[in-house]
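Before our next group meeting I need something from you. Please put the record directly below this note.
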Amino acid sequence: MNATAVASQGLAGIIAGESAVCSVEQGKLIYRGYEIHDLAENATFEEVAYLLILGDKPTAGQLSAFKKELAEARSLPQDVVNLIKECATAPYTHPMDALRTVVSYLAHFDPDCQDISAEAEVRKAKRLTAQIGTIIGHMQNAIDGRDIVAPDPSLSYAANLLYMMRGEKPTAEEEHIVDVSLILYAEHDFNASTFTGRVIAGTLSDLHGAITGAIAALKGPLHGGANEAAMEMLKEIGTLDNVESFMQQAFATKRKIMGFGHRVYKNGDHRADILHKLGRAYAEKKGGDAVKWFDIGERVQKIMRDEKNILPNVDFPCGMTYFVMGIPVPQYTPIFVASRITGWCAHVIEQHADRKLIRPLSSYTGPTERKWNG
């Protein structure tokens, strides 16, 4: 390794580039100048998608045109629909594997696939953003053995996503909760999946290839899969009476408690409270077992805070919220993709404009030099 280079395992604390897309700070998360609490309170996901992909807050006319473009781009070629059915029902497929495969396949149907000009990238970003929700909906239909539900152009992005998965239109509250969750997940600086996408884009490879790599990175339980893992952990705990014994056993065996801690936020993830409040309120209205999951989750949070001084990240309330809404756990991370696709596309566009190869060094830990015939 170069003597002047700085070693950092996992690139922790290393500034690996510049970006105008997002700023992750201890007290704030900012998308192109707008703070996440402001966006969650006052914006819709379509407005945030426009902001990330095109760079600024849309006017009323720009938003109307953008929403129309997204709605018109939701349908998929029949060959792609057939592939979704095959992938979704294959014996060892996780929905993220199916999503990754289908996004890669979509490149063959996109007229701008090989064009990495800014104009072509924006066109592809809009199409992919629209198509992701349709892929997820068709995938869940295939898994459930139901007829494919066609996208409804009259519905918002969030409402259409729920409608296609479940076959029934969501309530206004359900639409709002999912819309806010999509805003919260849309962008987060040089996280593992975004950085993966930028590394691929840095070679001047195409946008579909970069997004395919980003999806593969997001699948892991240490990244996007944490919301699934957090809910599976709560299901394992099962009842409020089991929380204490489960947590003490987890501490004794050094089991990782999913949905807690963050590589950047040391004082808590400010997105978590936003989603927790919405989810808890929905669960209380729904009643029954719905509230139970938040009671269990809040007890886990208290023990983690009191004994480990570790706070939840956004994945923890996401798991509980999606679960009480009836969303299948394996689709949590694909829904993450339906949001983060906007941030990924923004970063790929930015990296293509930069035209710089990302090529870090490594610290060699192998044998010292030796002779082959020695």
User: Anything to note?
Assistant: The chain has a mean pLDDT of 93. Residues 21 and 238 are 40 Å apart (CA to CA). The two ends are 26 Å apart (CA to CA). The chain is about 60% helix and 0% strand.
